[in-house]
Amino acid sequence: MKFPAKKEKWGTWRFELKYRISQWQYYQIKNAITPYMKPDEFTLAQLGGAYLVRSLYYDTHNYQAYHEKIGGDFGRIKIRTRSYTDIADENTKIRVELKTKRGSAMEKFSSFVPYSSYAAFMETGHWPAYDSPVLTEFERLYYLRTLKPKLLVQYRRLGLKSRFGENLRITFDMDVRSADSSSLFPATPFFRVHDPNLIILEIKCQSEQPQWLSKLVKQYGLKIVANSKYTRGIEISRPDAVTPMWSQGFANAPARLQQPGKIGSPVGHRRQFSN
């Protein structure tokens, strides 16, 4: 997919509010915001339809980024590479991103590189020479934390921007799925669908929401939810990575075996042989 030319911006900060909505709510809300919002340039490039987003997330061997997100750690950092196509060629642009969260505020730093540079990094662990602090910091964190590509997340996004020049963006992410992967473009990814009947609504702004939007959120009874595609993807695609296999087996064991102190339970078994 070819996007309109866009001047590179290394860093932007904003507030992100996320909601899970049904298909019915999606059509209702989409119609309700039409007087205020219009398709952004990425959606227009798809003739008004949703466009593909594919992200490869990096983490440590023990999934530090996952656990930091679950724990709500302040200042946590997420790094990823992103493509807007599932088939790469020499003209494909790859977006390199660093994302940090401080409370409800998010700051994202990004830089576009050609596919050849992405391929070089995947092979050597080093970016070709670029005057980009994003690539420098990405590589520094890659080695400092011994990061490796862990998860591929893909979805289709409908993006909207304000008709009145406000710094406001609304996106609808649908058909979210993930796969255990070490590449943005694996030959045969085994995708697992996250929530087939739900759509992720995100409101992104740098200041207070306009009054019409606040009213709409109340009208449809929308509730803010923690909705990290990465953590959801890990839990679906790599449950063994966040829950030890022995723990999964114990959780599925008969209730009598799970009661501490009972004969046959792990605790009771240890007590039989203690002095």
From TrEMBL:
Pfam families: VTC. GO terms for biological process: polyphosphate biosynthetic process. Residues 14-236 form the VTC domain. InterPro entries: VTC_domain, VTC_sf. Gene3D superfamilies: VTC, catalytic tunnel domain. This is VTC domain-containing protein. It comes from Dethiobacter alkaliphilus AHT 1.
